[in-house]
Amino acid sequence: MTVGADLFTLAEKLNLKNFTESIDLNTKLVYIPDVNRPALQLNGFYEHFEANRVQIIGMVEHAYLEQIDEEERYKQYDKLLSYPIPAVIFCRGFEPEEHFLKTAEQNGVPVLGTDRNTSEFEAELISTLSLELAPTTGLHGVLVDVYGEGLLITGESGIGKSEAALELIRRGHRLVADDTVEIKRTSQNTLLGCAPMTTKHLIELRGIGIIDVKSLFGVECVKDVQRIDLVIKLEEWKKGTEYDRLGLQEEYMDILDVPVVCHSLPIRPGRNLAVICETAAVNHRQKKMGYNAAEELYRRVQENIKNHTGE
Fold it and tell me: CA-based diameter of the chain, in Å?
């Protein structure tokens, strides 16, 4: 099922003026994260017209409409607004004519306005729509910003995810979400995580209860949104199980069809989870910068073997 972004929320976020107050913006949805400037349509060319996009009237469209006669202008208004357009937005403080508003209301097309520059507003509108319409999922886990890397800690309930996050917070890192992480795919390879409003800035610690991280540790210890760069999967240590000790081959976790590097971390008494998570984050960052310690070790071993063989 396709979920749309409601126009009322968009209008509030972008501070838009509503010229058609008789139309309830809560009932109007936008499904396409892109926009169209109908310069060609106002000139009568409707082949390949993207009527399902938000239409933006800027300087070019407004200047063209001002130079044509009233009869032709009204004809173009009637034609344009006969399509099931999600909304028409006037930029640069331009205001629609009475005939435009009347026709729009008759056809149920919302008309909005902004004082902002057309190009600047268009870019922000596309960005906002892309975020609102992004594929979304929820995962059980903890998301922490560690040295700028988004670390998603997963594992079975009670294994110590929240405790690890709390220790990371005490070490100067920032909490994004605990228990449930809402994840959006904002581009082909980008995942953004945040907390549901009900649990924002809160952590549940068994035996203690709910604590407010923002109140206890300060605003510098929380963050609203974070890109997910790495997954740490906590699991019980099982004797006899082989665990990766070199890291030559990356493992991945699929989230919304985006592969994210995933490390399985066996838990046993005495292991400092916070230090290990910090190290994993820094090591991942180092790999993105082009240096892989495991590959360097392999190179040294191969070179050593070659030298001994040569002797």
Answer: 95
Contact 278, 175 (CB under 8 A): no
Catalytic residue among 140, 171, 238, 271: 140
Q: How is residue 222 annotated by DSSP? A: B
* Catalytic-role residue among 48, 245, 268, 308: 245
| DSSP assignment of 246-302 | S--S--EEEETTEEEEEEEEEE-TT--HHHHHHHHHHHHHHHHTT--HHHHHHHHHH
Is 245 among the residues known to form the active site?
yes
Per-residue pLDDT reduced to its tens digit, 188-203:
889 999 999 999 999 9
For residue 287, indicate whether it is catalytic: no
Q: What is the CA radius of gyration of the chain?
A: 27
Which of 6, 92, 179, 285 is an active site residue? 179
pLDDT tens, residue by residue, 116-145: 999 999 999 999 998 889 999 999 999 999
Residue 6 is a catalytic residue: no
Instruction: Assess whether 140 carries a catalytic annotation.
Output: yes
What would the mean pLDDT of 8-20 be, rounded to a whole number? 94
Place of tokens 């073997």: 305
| Given the residues 161, 184, 201, 223, the one annotated as active site | 161
